[in-house]
Amino acid sequence: MEFLLKEMTGKYYPDRYSMYHQGDTVREAFYVSDGYVACLGFDEFDDKQVISIIGKDSIIAGKSFTAQEPSAYEWVCLPGAYVMRVSYVSMKEVYEKFPDAEELARLVMADISDKELERLKLLKRDAETVVYTFYVNHREFLDNPGMMADKELCTYLLISESTLRNVRQKLFKEGKL
After folding, report:
1. How far apart are CA 22 and CA 6, in angstroms?
2. Which intervals hold domain Cyclic nucleotide-binding (predicted)?
3. Which residues contact 110 (CB under 8 A, 6 or more apart)?
């Protein structure tokens, strides 16, 4: 544990910050200690979509990190995030010295994957259910609207900007949010 603490660095991000851009090789694994990190994808027209929003107590070590190849995605700390980082070389050394650490990392990442699958199942529901569930599970986005613009959030929820605003307003009026 002492080795890992020596190798990890942490930083608080009061503002939005792009850690890695599309095409960069992700050289560090991340542990989201507090707040959120967003994964952004781009289509052939360079239109941006929020692919994933990863919260507290999560490990991010995707394909770019594990294969040490250019990333198809951009990784962004949202305002208020505190993220710990460990280099690829250090992480390999941790796994060699502490085999159980690799299994623990796999379990944490599997949990993130399961949460994403649940979110995808939710997207087939009506817009009110999608918006309500998002804000119940991510209250910080309501309390701090500057975390992510509606235009981006809509790409994550797969609804239009006007639908998001109308449904959110309706939920406020009904006292549900």
Report:
1. 29
2. 1-72
3. none
Q: In the chain, what are the domains? A: 1-98 (2.60.120.10)
- The whole-model pTM stands at 0.84
Task: Give dist(CA 162, CA 177) in Å, integer.
Answer: 18
Token pair for 94: 């941790």
Rounded to 5 degrees, φ, ψ at 114 are -60, -40
- Alpha helices of 31-149 — where are they, by DSSP H? 63-67, 88-97, 99-122, 127-137, 140-143
Q: Could you report the per-residue pLDDT of 117-154, keeping only the tens digit for each?
A: 787 777 788 999 999 999 999 999 999 988 999 999 99
Q: Which residues contact 45 (CB under 8 A, 6 or more apart)?
A: none
Distance of CA 74 to the CA centre of its chain: 11
- Nearest Cα neighbor of 31 from 7, 15, 3 is 7
C-beta of residue 62 within 8 angstroms of C-beta of residue 73: yes
